Amino acid sequence: MLKKKIYLDYAATSPVTKEVLAAMKHYFSQDYGNPSEPHLWGQKARFAIDKSRQKIADFLGAKPQEIIFTSGATEAINLAHKGLIEAIRDTQNGKPHIITSLIEHKAVLETCQHLEKLNWAEVTYLPVDKDGLIKIEDLKKAIKPETVLISVMYVNNEVGIIEPIREIGQLIKKINQSRITNHQSPIYFHTDVTQALQYLNCNVDYLGVDLLSLSGHKFYVPKGVGLLYFRKKTPLVRQQDGGGQEYRLRAGTENVPYIVGLGKAIELVQQNKVQSVKLIKGLREKLVKGILKNQGVRLMGSSEKNAPHIATFLVEGAEGEAMLLLFSEKGIAVSSGSACTSGLLQPSHVLTAMGVPPEKSHGSLRFSLGKENTSKEIDYVIEIFPEIINKLRKMAPNLDIFNR
Ligand SMILES: *Cc1c(COP(=O)(O)O)cnc(C)c1O
């Protein structure tokens, strides 16, 4: 038996790596100045922020002035959506229209719902197919003269499906060319790359996006730092008032050590991308093959269009949260799509959008991989998986799993 704990929940969060911690350390108690102060202490902190911003801008193919540091993806997403709508609300004929998808992170969905409630925007939520993919045709049909924002995530955090961001970007570019000749305002394009950053090309011009958000703690930075990229000239009203920090778009004293950590982590992503994709892809393939040997288990997402670090399964006759707890007892961290909110099991909105009925979506189990995982760990998970599901299936014998 393995004594070591096995962490397979990297899509939820990740540990801070040594290199990142080492880069940050200095700015807690040595160069701790307030970057807004002109004295030496302040200027050292300012310099560290500038350096980090430049590194990140280079990685994204952006300019440093287009990066706003935030407390995470949630804040960046709020700023992008609310900030854009607030900025163009009065310049628009008719109510601004947003197009997004049914499988976005709650930060996007709830922000859109908030804007609907304020009556500031009308929102279209695009459906997805059984793999979780949106259809470009559906998107085309949804676009109206009032459409000002399209927001689609790059990689879905629950199933790992990769959405066709570059294709959407190209479509919007074409539409905007004719809009500009007709003196209409363009459509802005936002994507959340939090789950994509480590594995896919996130260059803003390659993707054709105007707004991009991410959170650091999914790639080895502490929780509580992220950023919004906004293409120059994208209208944006800040959502947090106060000081003039972050080009007047996000007031509040900068989190210097965490911003330094974010820059370091992105530098490491850049250096290690090729090997880490290869390693994690291999581990996922092994895991998927092993888990699918069990009866009544289905892989969600797509085999070709999936991120390498996420494998989500639907297990018949076993409940996700129960599996999670049994795994946890064995020292293994995994995740389940269904969340137990106030005693009620809520089916995942992502699986529901993919056409999974609620009783089946309760059997969802997500494994998400990171750079510390090994082949031996995957062997162990595959080995104990049948034990766990059989235990649960015996407890619920009335679920007719195999006689369909
Ligand atoms: C984790 C995550 C977020 C939210 O990040 P926070 O750090 O909680 O703000 C947003 N989008 C995706 C895809 C995520 O995985």
Commentary on this structure:
This protein is an alpha/beta fold and 404 residues long. It folds into two domains: 6-14 and 273-403, Aspartate Aminotransferase, domain 1 (Alpha-Beta Complex); 18-268, Aspartate Aminotransferase, domain 2 (3-Layer(aba) Sandwich), CATH 3.40.640.10. 42% of the residues lie in helices and 14% in strands. The protein contains 13 helices and 14 strands. The protein has helices at 18-29, 40-60, 73-88, 106-117, 136-142, 165-181, 204-207, 245-248, 256-291, 320-329, 349-353, 358-361, 375-395, and strands spanning 6-7, 67-70, 97-101, 122-126, 147-151, 188-192, 211-215, 226-230, 297-299, 310-315, 332-333, 339-341, 344-346, 364-368. The strands form four sheets. Strands 2-8-7-6-5-3-4 form a seven-stranded mixed β-sheet, sandwiched between helices. Strands 9-10-14 form a three-stranded antiparallel β-sheet. The longest helix is centred in the C-terminal third of the chain and has 36 residues, at 256-291. It is globular. The relative contact order is 0.16. The mean pLDDT is 94. The structure holds pyridoxal-5'-phosphate.
Task: Chart the SSEs and their pairings.
Layout (H helix, E strand, L loop, with lengths): L5 E2 L10 H12 L10 H21 L6 E4 L2 H16 L8 E5 L4 H12 L4 E5 L9 H7 L4 E5 L13 H17 L6 E5 L11 H4 L3 E5 L10 E5 L14 H4 L7 H36 L5 E3 L10 E6 L4 H10 L2 E2 L5 E3 L2 E3 L2 H5 L4 H4 L2 E5 L6 H21 L9
Parallel strand pairs: 1-11, 3-4, 3-5, 5-6, 6-7
Antiparallel strand pairs: 2-8, 7-8, 9-10, 10-14, 12-13
Helix pairs in contact: 1-9, 2-9, 3-4, 9-13, 10-13
The structure holds pyridoxal-5'-phosphate (PLP).
The site of pyridoxal-5'-phosphate has 14 residues, from helix 3.
